[in-house]
Amino acid sequence: MVDSERIQNPWMASDQTSLQMNPNATQRFSPPPPQLTSNNDKLGIAERATSAAGAAFLSAVIVNPLDVAKTRLQAQAAGVAYSHPLSNMISRMSCFGPNMMFADLRCSPSCTRAGFHGTVSLCPPDCFRYKGTLDVISKIIQQEGFTRLWRGTNAGLALAVPTVGIYLPCYDIFRNWFEEFTAKSAPTATPYVPLVAGSLARSLACATCYPIELARTRMQAFKETQIDKKPPGVFKTLLGVVSNGKGTNSPPNSLQGYRVLWTGMGAQLVRDVPFSAICWSTLEPTRRKLISLVGGNDASLLSVLGANFSAGFVAGTLAAGATCPLDVAKTRRQIEMDPIRALKMTTRQTLMEIWRDGGFKGLFTGFGPRVGRAGPSVGIVVSFYEVVKFALNHRYTTS
């Protein structure tokens, strides 16, 4: 019995020896708290990646409407004009006279603000201008349909599954490596391990899957200009980016054309690395504290779920709020339609442009939906991932 307890709690061996040497020390002895780490070494990289991919799939579907709202608000602040899909065609036909055409340019069939220009039923520009998160969601439902709130979900899934499948397992591996290293050589650096591990893991995941992120932002930012036509998917969106980039090369350079697929990756890294650093350095101590309150290593499945979701929600909210200006810069660089300008722009120049155009308010455009998206998203991803790991470890332990 004692031997089995020593195997599960290695700290018991030295303490039992000290108790035998000094029996009077029993009153002063208080065993150190058990380590909150589970037997993660039993899980392979494939199992970690699978559980992380499942978490990413669930999160991407649930929070996508807030992601669309955030991107639309930021794109509008960058100068993207939202209007009825037929408005450009009607303006080109207006030279034939207002009575030569008949069209309905109301923002929705139920809109009562539309007036008539000749035979054209026309809504005022305010009907197509977004004023906030709820206004974006409401107008997308009225003008484009409920399913458009999930525009870019296929790109989000194509992005989230490999990204998180790389991100979380690599974070686990880097954290374990650095904790072992700092425990032996630099114990004072241990609190900074989550910050470094999260930054490295996020950089690796971002560089690997960035073109899909570019496609998702463009799919969410722009309306489809042709009615009753299926909007382009990830592949067609990326083809359009490449063809636009190649068309501006003189002489043509195929490598330059494909380089545009990584337009704005610097801004993405500048946003994601601080986000991960803030997120993990907040999440780790928070969830360890919560798990210790609900039983430590003896915590139940529901306790693990609740502790990880709560810690992830708090960490994601703080990180998203702090990095919102960098997210605005990232969106602006990704929706830039001039590939030459996009390749020459830097994140610093973009932030200065945002400050010049909108000041402090401009730097925090889309703050509400970004924070509202990131908190639940991080909570869902981390809690799902940890629960799957908990279940797999429990299965290995019992078998």
UniProtKB/TrEMBL annotation:
Belongs to the mitochondrial carrier (TC 2.A.29) family. Keywords: Membrane, Mitochondrion, Mitochondrion inner membrane, Repeat, Transmembrane, Transmembrane helix, Transport. Its main location: mitochondrion. It comes from the Eukaryota. This is Mitochondrial carrier protein MTM1. It is found in: Mitochondrion inner membrane. Solcar repeats lie at residues 43-177, 189-289, 303-391. It holds the Pfam family Mito_carr. One of its GO terms (biological process) is mitochondrial transmembrane transport. It is a multi-pass membrane protein. SUPFAM superfamilies: Mitochondrial carrier. Coiled coil: none annotated. GO terms for cellular component: mitochondrial inner membrane.
